[in-house]
Amino acid sequence: VFPGSVDAAGQPATLGVMGGGQLGRMFVHAAQRLGYFTAVLDPDAQSPAGRVSHHHIQTGYDDPAGLVQLAHLCQAITTEFENVPALALQTLAQTRPVAPGAAVVGIAQNRIEEKAHFAACAAVSGVSCAPYAVIETPAQLQAVQAERSDLLPGILKTARMGYDGKGQVRVKTAGELAAAWAELGGVACVLEKMLPLTAECSVLVARGWDGRVVSFAPQRNVHVNGILAVTHAYDGNMPSALATRAREAAVAVAHHLGYVGVLCVEFFVVDDGSEHGGLVVNEMAPRPHNSGHYTLDACDVSQFDLQVHAMAGLPLPQPRQHSPAIMLNLLGDVWFAASGQQQDPDWYSVLRLPGTHLHLYGKVQARAGRKMGHLTITGPDVASVKTVAQQAAGLLG
Ligand code: ADP
Ligand code: MG
């Protein structure tokens, strides 16, 4: 579907997105820049993407009338969050191209299926996930308690609906494991061995309907309390041998899934006694990702541009990063840092720093842990980017 085209009924080429959060908002911006109209489906009247889109369908994600309306308005549809009901994507796919498809989104929604997929393609990707066991029944819990002490200390993670460290409990003993499973409501979980991480990184890949793939170099991510805090995106952010392996592994995963659209694959770097450490695949997001926000300001093509290109069947340009970058996530906490009351940060001082790019998502209410925006710092060289990032972080408390 070509940008700017008008169909027989006089309707302008329109791209749709399930979900109206900040990822949807940045997707909408990228689509509109190319001349597309956009439609967002999100029940929230104040959703960040709904507010900037040509059309905002305010229904639940599985509302039949809402889905019909979205399909009617749009020539192609994507999703901005992985917990969209797979059935909704299947319904849309009956009449419209949907990328990524319901099957791959379904895999990414469930850690058990996700890990099975990683295992199935380990031979081509060259990476495995952390040792783990599935706990779905009391009998499985008992078996793990009796036979899998190798997984302790570990992290018990719900199979579904986990994000930003939610739905996870760290456990040291078999007793703590039982308590944690009860605490999580006895739902399907995986127990994962706690690994000695030396770093974390992620790779963004875009794959087209024709199977062509482009990718960004891996970015190194720092998480605080399970939430992404800082992304380092520049040459030398991690050992180049590991970076090459991570990038190739992510591409292999995308091919193996027959994926269409932007995919983010997250990796752990673990201390395994080798020179640079070993690479372990953690999880994947079937969409643009927080760790790729720097591409908006530091690359000639952003992750959101690639999502638009992929779903619309446009050529996928290999992105080129033109500046080193550091991205700082702006959580709601920043708004309370100074006085304990909600108060805007000193943007004047932040924006006076060279190479700062402020992105706010239009969320009115700041809350601790809520992603309100991000700040990307670009500059002529890594040293100056690091210096400015430190100054900005200081101003933001
Ligand atoms: P989420 O869906 O919340 O992003 P993750 O599985 O990525 O869940 O876990 C969040 C963070 O917790 C990771 O980025 C990492 O810092 C830490 N973590 C998760 N699993 C492990 C593990 N097996 N060993 C060590 N740290 C882990
Ligand atoms: Mg994660």
TrEMBL record:
An example Gene Ontology CC term for this record: cytosol
Record pathway: Purine metabolism; IMP biosynthesis via de novo pathway; 5-amino-1-(5-phospho-D-ribosyl)imidazole-4-carboxylate from 5-amino-1-(5-phospho-D-ribosyl)imidazole (N5-CAIR route): step 1/2
UniProt enzyme class: ligase
EC number: 6.3.4.18
Positions contributing to ATP binding: 111, 157, 162-168, 192-195, 200, 223, 282-283
Classification via SUPFAM superfamilies: Glutathione synthetase ATP-binding domain-like, PreATP-grasp domain, Rudiment single hybrid motif
Pfam family, any one: PurK_C
Transmembrane segments: none
GO-annotated molecular function: 5-(carboxyamino)imidazole ribonucleotide synthase activity; ATP binding; metal ion binding; phosphoribosylaminoimidazole carboxylase activity
Residue span(s) of domain ATP-grasp: 119-312
GO biological process, one term: 'de novo' IMP biosynthetic process
Keywords on record: ATP-binding, Ligase, Nucleotide-binding, Purine biosynthesis
Superkingdom of origin organism: Bacteria
Catalysed transformations (reactions): 5-amino-1-(5-phospho-beta-D-ribosyl)imidazole + hydrogencarbonate + ATP = 5-carboxyamino-1-(5-phospho-D-ribosyl)imidazole + ADP + phosphate + 2 H(+)
Subunit structure: Homodimer.
Described purpose of this protein according to its UniProt entry: Catalyzes the ATP-dependent conversion of 5-aminoimidazole ribonucleotide (AIR) and HCO(3)- to N5-carboxyaminoimidazole ribonucleotide (N5-CAIR).
Family stated for the protein in its record: Belongs to the PurK/PurT family.
Protein name from the UniProt record: N5-carboxyaminoimidazole ribonucleotide synthase
